[in-house]
């Protein structure tokens, strides 16, 4: 028993000492090496198939094509009998609903379809499935200090990321496995007009399992929860 206790204390001491020595950018580089060892994200051109499960709605399936070199993005979603499509080709935007492209303003408004929303989806999916590589983007500020935290009973090395005003106001935390540097959790908070975190805002996302897409290790399952009360929002499942 004494040996076990001593070993545990030694591991904790080494872990704390290591997290104080390594910098935020060092952890990020190691995480990127784990997820994208061949540096393929910059030329990513592939298709993602995602099923979204939520407690209050029927499942939504999505086909997502991201072509970074050609600046193209395509999203096709289906929930029940409604099929919507967004096709972005640089500055060009095409929207369709159940196969029809000549849509009235009333129909677009009813189904919340717009080119602005298409770009939001593009940024959303490119950001989340491009992590942690996207943390190298211009305007992202990786804080130097690496925190050691236990979350849901597991130890993590945690990076804090904030953004230049032109990019965003949220504060993000990224949780990495201290042995492999795999990204296993991320979390964000909203801020007030002074830039202080609103503690009852935002969400955390638990990442489990992986799929290898175009040589990149991506989270297969992402489960979303509110920070304030651990309320469950839904789960995204990535399929090949």
UniProtKB/TrEMBL annotation:
The keyword Signal applies. Keywords: Signal. InterPro entries: DUF6503 (IPR045444). Pfam families: DUF6503. Residues 1-22 form the signal peptide. This is DUF6503 family protein. It comes from Wocania arenilitoris.
């Amino acid at each position: 028993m004494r040996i076990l206790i001593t070993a545990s204390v030694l591991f904790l001491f080494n872990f704390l000492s290591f997290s104080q020595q390594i910098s935020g950018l060092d952890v990020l580089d190691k995480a990127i090496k784990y997820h994208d060892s061949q540096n393929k994200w910059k030329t990513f051109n592939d298709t993602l198939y995602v099923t979204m499960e939520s407690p209050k709605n029927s499942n939504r399936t999505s086909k997502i094509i991201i072509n970074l070199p050609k600046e193209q993005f395509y999203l096709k979603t289906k929930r029940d009998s409604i099929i919507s499509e967004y096709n972005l080709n640089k500055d060009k935007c095409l929207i369709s609903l159940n196969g029809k492209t000549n849509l009235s303003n009333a129909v677009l408004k009813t189904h919340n379809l717009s080119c602005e929303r298409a770009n939001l989806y593009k940024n959303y999916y490119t950001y989340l499935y491009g992590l942690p590589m996207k943390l190298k983007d211009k305007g992202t500020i990786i804080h130097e200090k690496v925190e050691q935290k236990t979350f849901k009973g597991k130890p993590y090395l945690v990076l804090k990321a904030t953004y230049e005003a032109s990019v965003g106001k949220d504060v993000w935390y990224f949780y990495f496995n201290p042995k492999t540097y795999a990204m296993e959790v991320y979390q964000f908070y909203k801020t007030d007009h002074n830039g202080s975190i609103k503690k009852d805002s935002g969400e955390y996302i638990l990442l489990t399992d992986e799929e290898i897409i175009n040589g990149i290790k991506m989270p297969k399952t992402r489960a979303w929860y509110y920070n304030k009360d651990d309320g469950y929002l839904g789960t995204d499942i990535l399929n090949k």
